[in-house]
Amino acid sequence: MYAVIVTFQVVADEMPAFMPLMRKNAAMSLAQEAGCHQFDICTDPMHPDDVFLYELYTDRPAFDLHLASDHFKVFDAKTKPMITAKVVRTYQDVIT
User: Can you give the pTM of this predicted structure?
Assistant: First the structure.
Protein backbone atom coordinates (compact mmCIF):
# COMPACT_ATOMS: atom_id res chain seq x y z
CA MET A 1 0.00 0.00 0.00
CA TYR A 2 0.94 3.62 -0.58
CA ALA A 3 -0.19 6.20 1.98
CA VAL A 4 -0.71 9.89 1.30
CA ILE A 5 -1.15 12.45 4.05
CA VAL A 6 -2.21 15.95 3.11
CA THR A 7 -2.69 18.93 5.40
CA PHE A 8 -4.47 22.06 4.28
CA GLN A 9 -4.81 25.45 5.89
CA VAL A 10 -8.00 26.90 4.48
CA VAL A 11 -8.60 30.64 4.19
CA ALA A 12 -10.67 31.88 7.11
CA ASP A 13 -14.40 31.64 6.33
CA GLU A 14 -13.83 29.45 3.23
CA MET A 15 -14.45 26.13 5.01
CA PRO A 16 -18.20 26.06 4.09
CA ALA A 17 -17.24 26.28 0.40
CA PHE A 18 -14.17 24.03 0.68
CA MET A 19 -15.64 21.03 2.51
CA PRO A 20 -18.35 20.04 -0.03
CA LEU A 21 -15.69 20.09 -2.75
CA MET A 22 -13.38 18.01 -0.56
CA ARG A 23 -16.13 15.48 0.21
CA LYS A 24 -17.00 15.16 -3.48
CA ASN A 25 -13.35 14.59 -4.40
CA ALA A 26 -13.03 11.86 -1.76
CA ALA A 27 -16.29 10.15 -2.77
CA MET A 28 -15.39 10.19 -6.46
CA SER A 29 -11.90 8.88 -5.73
CA LEU A 30 -13.31 5.93 -3.81
CA ALA A 31 -16.05 5.24 -6.37
CA GLN A 32 -14.07 5.68 -9.59
CA GLU A 33 -10.48 4.73 -8.77
CA ALA A 34 -9.85 1.02 -8.28
CA GLY A 35 -6.49 1.83 -6.68
CA CYS A 36 -7.97 4.15 -4.02
CA HIS A 37 -8.79 2.09 -0.92
CA GLN A 38 -9.29 4.76 1.74
CA PHE A 39 -9.85 8.50 1.76
CA ASP A 40 -10.41 9.99 5.21
CA ILE A 41 -11.13 13.68 5.75
CA CYS A 42 -10.38 14.89 9.28
CA THR A 43 -10.99 18.21 11.01
CA ASP A 44 -10.49 19.50 14.53
CA PRO A 45 -12.80 22.07 16.18
CA MET A 46 -9.75 23.48 17.97
CA HIS A 47 -8.21 24.27 14.55
CA PRO A 48 -11.24 25.18 12.42
CA ASP A 49 -9.28 26.17 9.31
CA ASP A 50 -7.19 22.96 9.12
CA VAL A 51 -8.04 19.80 7.15
CA PHE A 52 -6.09 16.54 7.35
CA LEU A 53 -6.42 13.79 4.74
CA TYR A 54 -5.35 10.17 5.04
CA GLU A 55 -5.47 8.29 1.74
CA LEU A 56 -4.44 4.73 0.87
CA TYR A 57 -3.64 3.62 -2.66
CA THR A 58 -2.46 0.32 -4.06
CA ASP A 59 0.83 1.89 -5.16
CA ARG A 60 2.39 5.10 -6.48
CA PRO A 61 0.95 4.62 -10.00
CA ALA A 62 -2.55 4.44 -8.48
CA PHE A 63 -1.92 7.77 -6.73
CA ASP A 64 -0.59 9.24 -9.99
CA LEU A 65 -3.87 8.18 -11.67
CA HIS A 66 -5.73 10.00 -8.90
CA LEU A 67 -3.75 13.18 -9.57
CA ALA A 68 -4.51 12.87 -13.29
CA SER A 69 -8.25 12.27 -12.81
CA ASP A 70 -10.72 14.85 -14.04
CA HIS A 71 -12.45 15.08 -10.67
CA PHE A 72 -9.16 15.82 -8.89
CA LYS A 73 -8.22 18.47 -11.46
CA VAL A 74 -11.60 20.19 -10.96
CA PHE A 75 -11.22 20.00 -7.16
CA ASP A 76 -7.68 21.37 -7.32
CA ALA A 77 -8.63 24.29 -9.57
CA LYS A 78 -11.70 25.27 -7.56
CA THR A 79 -10.01 25.07 -4.15
CA LYS A 80 -6.61 26.58 -4.97
CA PRO A 81 -7.70 30.13 -4.02
CA MET A 82 -9.24 28.79 -0.78
CA ILE A 83 -5.95 27.33 0.51
CA THR A 84 -3.22 29.27 2.31
CA ALA A 85 -0.92 26.26 2.83
CA LYS A 86 -0.77 22.65 1.67
CA VAL A 87 1.67 19.89 2.63
CA VAL A 88 1.69 16.47 0.97
CA ARG A 89 3.64 13.57 2.46
CA THR A 90 3.80 10.05 1.06
CA TYR A 91 4.76 6.73 2.58
CA GLN A 92 5.57 3.83 0.31
CA ASP A 93 5.75 0.88 2.71
CA VAL A 94 2.53 0.64 4.67
CA ILE A 95 2.53 -2.37 6.96
CA THR A 96 -0.92 -3.76 7.65
Answer: 0.92
DSSP the chain: -EEEEEEEEEPTT-HHHHHHHHHHHHHHHHHH-TTEEEEEEEEETTEEEEEEEEEEESSHHHHHHHHHSHHHHHHHHHHGGGEEEEEEEEES----
Distance CA 64, CA 8 (A): 20
Across-strand partners of 78? none
* Domain annotation for the chain: domains and CATH numbers: 2-91 (3.30.70.100)
Residue-wise pLDDT tens digits, 9-61: 999 899 999 999 999 999 999 999 999 999 999 999 999 999 999 999 999 99
pLDDT at residue number 86: 97
